[in-house]
Amino acid sequence: MEILAQNPTEKFLLLQSLESYLQKTGLSPAGASAFTLLATFAVLALLVWVLDRLGTKVLLGLIRHAVSKTETLWDDHLLRHKFFPRLIELATAGGLLALVRTVFSGYGPALIGAITLVLRVYMTVVGALMIGALLNTVNDIYESKPQSRRKSIRGYVQTAKIVVWIIAGILIVSILIGRDPTDLLLGLGASAALVSLVFKDTILGFVASIQLSAQDMIRPGDWIEMPSKGADGVVSEINVNSVKVRNWDNTMTMIPIYSLVSESFTNWRNMEESAGRRFKRPLRIDATTVSTLSEEQLTALTADPRIAELAEAMLILDRQTGTSPCRTNFGLFRCYAQIYMARHPKVVHSLPVLARYLPWDENGLTLEIYGFSTEKSFPVYEQVVADLLNHLLAVMPAFGLRLYQRPAAPSASEFGSLSPTTNVSARAGSGTPLA
């Protein structure tokens, strides 16, 4: 056999001595050679196990102790991503590779070539894992810095890892078939169309991540809204293929990253960085409660303790914005609402603040309050808007106004029990006012 083909003068000294001893005990030359080969594999396996135990228990323990004593972060991240254990494995495989030709000399090139091939493939895989650990460490260190909120490099890191594994795959194939890696690269050039088809999503994602990063369209921590994908929440992770969004109901939505370039979405970052968050809420007023005010009614209104503090400013605004000599309670209420919001401590005064009329319809007269809250976080923002509405609803009766509520249609039995006069009145009614 080629594997057992041997020249005793070329064998490793210890193996040659063992084989000679076995032949003296009565074994045939072929049997002694086979036994010596098996013994060599057993000794190498034992050596690998011993080195692995020494590396993981002793050497790695010393590395952990040294890392815990340092103040830098990079070594902690390298240890967490298993860079040092893989470095020990690479050194062990390199040492075995250096011993192969010496230990197995005389057993034929086929055996030496097979062991060398396995070790080279193993070292290539471990080397790729080490580079991946380095890239993960770079990403972790970058994300620990404040500027990582402005721009994420996770997509670039993942792309670099893909390139590393592609190169590792080419090297492994070249080792297995015994060809130069450059020959394989030339062959891949002819199959570029197939490669682009297989890695279409990755290529699209990589290009999209570059566009998003260059234009600063999205960052980790941004609140985005994309109804087409069912996403409404905070961006928690950006990678080369997708963007992970934690919705407000604590569900997770994965959005293909190229969809953020090809489709529209809303990013609320500028709102969070601006002076305030906009609010606008409608107040629907029953039209039957709107009336003009006499001087006596106006005096009584301005003397009401609920609005007396802002009454003078309300009248000044009414004179500045009104063109008619007669005053209505609805017009004064609009002026009061605008003055109250303009003086509220939680409303941004440098941005537009107004109470405006909206087109009237069958739902009554609509007054919309419009402004910007200094509080932008969701719970506090809603509390500020609720406080504004609560106050306006509380002072509305002082102006003689009531909210409008559309009446429900009567049921068939109720409709039949009504008299003809009542039916006509019900159909012609404007609605049910609320006190």
Explained architecture:
This protein has 435 residues and is of the alpha+beta class. Helix content is 58%, strand content 13%. It is built from 17 helices and 10 strands. The strands form 3 sheets. A 5-stranded antiparallel sheet has the order 4-3-2-1-5, with no helix packed on it. Strands 6-8-7 form a 3-stranded antiparallel sheet. Strands 9-10 form a two-stranded antiparallel sheet. Strand 3 (242-247) and strand 4 (252-256) form a beta hairpin. The radius of gyration is 40 Å and the shape is elongated. It starts with 12 loop residues before the first helix and ends with a strand. Mean pLDDT is 77; it is low at 1-9 and 415-435.
> Which term fits the overall shape?
elongated
What is the helix fraction of residues, given as a range?
Answer: 55-70%
Nearest-angstrom radius of gyration?
40 Å
How many angstroms does the end-to-end distance come to?
105 Å
Proportion in β-strands? 5-15%
Total beta-strand segments: 10
Enumerate how many helices there are, as a single number: 17
Mean pLDDT: 77
Report a brief summary of the structure.
Keywords: Membrane, Transmembrane, Transmembrane helix. The chain has helices at 13-24, 29-69, 74-80, 83-103, 109-143, 154-177, 181-190, 192-198, 200-214, 259-262, 269-273, 295-302, 308-321, 329-343, 378-395, 412-417, 420-428; strands spanning 223-226, 231-238, 242-247, 252-256, 266-267, 277-285, 354-361, 364-373, 403-405, 432-434.
